[in-house]
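Researcher: Please translate sequence to structure tokens.
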Amino acid sequence: MQASEWQSKGELIEVAKKHLFVIDSDKQNLANKPLLCILHGFPTSSFDYWKVLELLQQKFRVVIHDHLGFGFSDKPLDYSYSLIDQADMALALWKQLKIKQAYILAHDYGTSILTEILVRDNQACCPIKIQKVALCNGSMHIELAKLKLMQKLLRKRLFGHLIARFASKPTLKKNLRDTFYDKSQLSNQELDGIWEMM
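Model: Translation complete:
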């Protein structure tokens, strides 16, 4: 799938004066299906789910957005991009979409955002009822994560922003393919789409 095809499936929604790219498979919930909210990983976007979206839609109304700074969402330069802010944005979006209860699927960076949401849920200040969660490949405790060299460099406060600025398409391809046992699972077309969205 091309990045432009993925983009055509969603829309930009303004949340807290920022625009988030959102795909809502059934805004009206005409089929009255349970709701599944998805929080994607780093450094990609909602595009990670293009192969399974149709399958998930058979059982769920699916709402997936690109976190601020990712995919087709705004990428403000003067912004903290903290997990707390990302959780604020996700919850504000879901509230705006009038989501009252949902299953949540979180992957990688999304599991860290979900951790913040779960803290709020435990403190009875989460605006939605979380029915169940599924966590995939998460590093909720960064000290236990087995980070790749590029991830370690990006985390460095003094020069991480410089590393990000000099990132290249070949570097992205190598680093993302290295996360797959079978490197052919990630096509050049998919990598081109991911790079275009970044």
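Researcher: Any highlights?
Model: The radius of gyration is 17 Å.
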